[in-house]
Amino acid sequence: MVRYVRQRDTFRCGPIAILNALKWAGAPVTAALLPEITAVAGCVYPEGTQPKDFAPALRAFGEKYFSVGTVPLPSIRAIENCLREEDRAVLVNYGWFNRDAGNALTGHYTLFTGVSARGQRFTAVNFSRGAGGSAQGTTSTVSRAKMREFLHHRKDPEESRWYPGSWFLTKK
Predict the structure, then answer these.
(1) Is the preceding peptide bond at 28 cis, omega within 30 degrees of 0?
(2) Rounded distance between C-alpha atoms, residue 127 and residue 144, angstroms
């Protein structure tokens, strides 16, 4: 069983997602790599990591361990189908309007590593339910209804970008 790294702050979900994707793929990495990933991914407090910086960092660190395909505005069915294939995972950057931050659009990166036989539950690493922007544990089960809520298309009015974005991973 993979021992994933828990996010311990409110802004480093991007670097944690990359680190946990490496762990999922079998890379011999530890949390000691987090400062380097944070720097390469351009992650800063309090904004976190922008998707334009996340994708190149994901590809650079994962180059030996997995291939990456970008899927903008993924459907729940596309994610489910990917997760049913062997040696596949999906990183999703989803957004919600955060009432605690003046209704600003807030984003979060989560690694999905599995789906139940009937497709009603998804296995997530570092999933956030929107409470304060930080994750509620290392690994959790997310219902299809909750996935549908977080995969709802939202536009960031300040940056003209849409949520969610996703990266489909295949182990090498």
Answers:
(1) no
(2) 14
